[in-house]
Amino acid sequence: MPASPWPTPRSVRQASQLHALLITSGKISHPPSAGHLLNSLASCVSTPRHLGYALSLFDRLPQQSTFLFDTALRACLRASAAADHPVLLFRRMRRGGVRADAFTFHFLFRCCAALPFPGARGRAGLCRMLHAACHRTMLPSAATLVANPLIHMYAVLGLTDDARRVFDEVPVKDAVVWATVIGGLAKTGMLDEARGLLEQAPERNVISWTSLIAGYSRARRAAEAVDCFNRMLSDGVAPDEVAVIGVLSACSQLKDLDLGRSLHFLIGEKRIRMSDNLVVALIDMYAKCGDIACAQGIFDAVGRGQKPQPWNAIIDGYCKLGHVDVARSLFDQMDAPDVITFNSMITGYIHSGRLSDAILLFMQMRRHNLRADNFTVVSLLTACASLGALPQGRALHASIEQRLVEEDVYLVTALVDMYMKCGRVDEATFVFHRMRERDVHTWSAMIAGLAFNGMGMVALEYFYQMKRDDFQPNSVTYIAVLTACSHSCLLDEGRLHFNEMRSLHRIHPQIEHYGCMIDLLARSGLLDEAMDLVQTMPMQPNAVIWGSILSACRIHKKIDLARYAAEHLLKLEPDEDAVYVQLYNIYIDSRQWVDASRIRMLMEERGVKKTAGYSSITVAGQVHKFVVNDQSHPWTFEIIAMMEEIAQRLKSVGYSPITSKITVDVDEEEKEQALLAHSEKMAIAFGLISLAPNLPIHVMKNLRVCEDCHTAIKLISKLWNREIIVRDRSRFHHFRDATCSCNDFW
């Protein structure tokens, strides 16, 4: 294009001023002047609004040449336009008989790589169509000019076979083409192929090495990333900032502090620019390698700026090391914490067991006009599920309903799981049936939740419905199904599904599946069959399996087998108090006083202490915790009065305390008083006097509910016409009208 007499605008505003000048002077129809304006404007556009102005100007030009079409395509690339703009321009070009050149396809391929296209198949078809048009139009001499953006386009879209085919067809491959194909393969996870090409490359530059190092780090192949970095140094290639960041990430994964320090020294030695990303990588490396003092030193020296990334790195480091109060102090010093900062702090609180602080911080995000990401909310719901924190879980549900977070299948699955683990089967079922989309994980969560809540037959109905809806069950689904059979004594169904998972779905049972089946057989009294399965399973039994055998031995009075199971358990978990207590109780039940005494002495010799039982209940958002014979509660007198009323009303309907389970040598009345003072009964008594009559009483217990309490709570539920939900260490018990959801099989 001939040189223009007009000045070159440096901004869209200056371009609009030149546009006005050309119009008033009558030069807008002068092709060189109009072309100069469009070319200048294309170099300035950065938003879709600017692009609209540039394309409007392009549409008004009287003559549209190859150069002007290329200029318009360049503007589309700079403005990250919608996918239809460059494609429509190319179609107009062909309809108008304007010949495309190498630059046309250069910009088209770059647009296809950079711009959003709907549908993966549509994108692939369009890219191949443009490639074919290029092949028909271009002379072989232009192949090198378009090869790099073409390979890059295919690699970005994950079409690595196409990228490799183009690379193989390029007659003269320069260093840029080699680096592009190696980087594309590395980004799509084809690291071995990328490494093979790197070995063949006539010139291995820093870009090729860096692509491979970053790919290995992303794939958690840290040792290979470090090896690549060392090979790069031995080749005499000077590392740049990106290469060092990649190997620092690998160093963090390996937790190799010595290597991290040597890299820090190398940064100074090679005078590599200390960018924000490099500062973050160094802080992250030192924190993950356990040297938080060095991480803090780097942050204090170069990280205390306005940008949030270094702050996020140091806060996340403190949170991961459990120093959440130090992290919160730094958090409060920030001018504008972002979503990542909040996520780190919330996750830190969750891992430290401070759920209330995590929820409060989540609510504070709204005041900062920040939208929580789904990962954070799923983490919070998972924490609520594990702690049985129903009020906090409901608050999160309200946030989801208010569209404060984007609803997806993972989020709603976590919501179903939370309600199930808080014992609210009705609310979990309501959420499940409202879901617009479900996947196998959702169905599995629903089946597992019903199983743990003692509703085995209902769980199996959902399993059958899942298969009718053409969802393929996976290994986790069958764990849930077998748990449902185990918790509800569904022996025939358990055998059927244990065999079916192998024969129909080719799912090989894992130790969890064997554990469920052995538990079902053992608790059903089929201990010989259970032991046959233990001895024929293809892996060594774990503590859970031997624990199931031991528990069943107490129910079915199998002393010798109990001793055998306990021996294996004590080898696996020599400090686990529950093993000693269970074996002690078995000996007491069998009146083998000498053996029982030996177990007590063994516990004393090994310093093993019995875990203190406690129960908790949440009233008006506050958690109230009780231990046996607790008299520390502010409402102690009222609780004692209610417990006396409970004792009287239980006796009036024929209840007799199961005092045979108490081994202490005291009279019968004291044994009855000891049973009455169990922590779960005290929590229920407090619930009866503090909760409205229409509300369920929800109690959490850290140990298994004893037989006497189980019998008493069934009667209490009928006498007070209340729903009582007890979550012990292994399952839920839903008490209504003198019955329990476990059907006395627990």
TrEMBL record:
Gene Ontology biological process terms in this record: RNA modification
Record InterPro entries: DYW_dom, E2_motif, E_motif, PPR_At4g14850-like_plant, PPR_rpt, TPR-like_helical_dom_sf
Gene3D superfamilies to which the protein is assigned, alphabetical: Tetratricopeptide repeat domain
Key words, A-Z: Repeat, Transit peptide
PPR repeat spans: 174-204, 205-239, 307-337, 338-372, 408-442
Molecular function GO terms recorded: RNA binding; zinc ion binding
Keyword flag Transit peptide: yes
Residue span, DYW domain: 654-746
Recorded superkingdom: Eukaryota
This protein's record includes keyword Ubl conjugation: no
Record protein name field: DYW domain-containing protein
Origin species: Digitaria exilis
